[in-house]
Amino acid sequence: MVSTNARHPPDASAPPFVRVKHYLRQGLAEGQWLPGALMPSESELMHQFGVSRMTVNRAIRELQAEGLVTRTQGVGTFAAALHRVSSTLRIQDVHEEIVARGHIHRAEVHLRRAEPAAQGVAEQLGVPVGSEVFHTLIVHHENGVPLQCEDRYVNPACAPHYLEEDFSQVTPTQHLFRHTALWRAQYQLEAAMPTRQEARLLQIEPDAPCLIMVRRTHTRDAVITLARLVYPGSRYSLAGEFNP
Q1: For the chain, which end, N or C, has fewer CB atoms within 10 Å of the first or last residue's CB respectively?
Q2: Which of 20, 11, 26 is nearest to 41 (CA)?
Q3: Boundaries of CATH 1.10.10.10 in the chain?
Q4: Does 83 score more than 80 pLDDT?
Q5: Model confidence pLDDT, tens digit, residues 182-241
Q6: Domain 103-240 is classified in which CATH homologous superfamily?
Q7: 151, 153, 216 from 135: Cα distances, Å
Q8: How much is the pTM?
Q9: Where in the chain is the domain with CATH 3.40.1410.10?
Q10: Local structure of residue 11 (DSSP, 8 states)
């Protein structure tokens, strides 16, 4: 299973759903619930953590979106089949990742607008060339140091209120988790140099190696978003675990 530095227990100040999510994810990683096993019910988790059903539901829903659990209405939540878990790259929200390490997250919004879709973007999002798409460019900081440059295009048909969000307070990933029906994701990872703009925003040298992820997410019948996520190699690492 591929992960992104999320093995550390969340800080006491972390949002309640982060604590519930970490508990369930850690139990899965340690084999507490084997593939196909029934996991604790929402009521059990509410009692254990002293939180609302909405909080528990969000934690489980995000684990489901990451491919780590499955849910059957009226029956419960189950640990995902091993082949699904071991081949899944979690869609990790950068804010939650930073908060879970006990650090401070800050987002700088450099671009937030609607614009005509260029050919390459249109092909990736599955929309007509020249049609309106939403575009944001955000730099995420950890304890004041730039950690991620997020360049994202969004299909307005899937997230019509995207540009109304205050992205200094809510990340695009959080907004899209809440307002879209995520079905699957595609991703590509590479080690490469940043663009001049990315180097400037991340406050690194133009020839500094970076980890670059390009990711598309889908509903059942449409592409939701196309995101390019750039991390300075000296500030970020990608760790993993595989259980045969």
Answers
A1: C
A2: 20
A3: 2-90
A4: no
A5: 888 888 888 999 999 999 999 999 999 999 999 999 988 899 999 999 999 988 766 554
A6: Chorismate lyase-like (3.40.1410.10)
A7: 8, 5, 14
A8: 0.65
A9: 103-240
A10: P
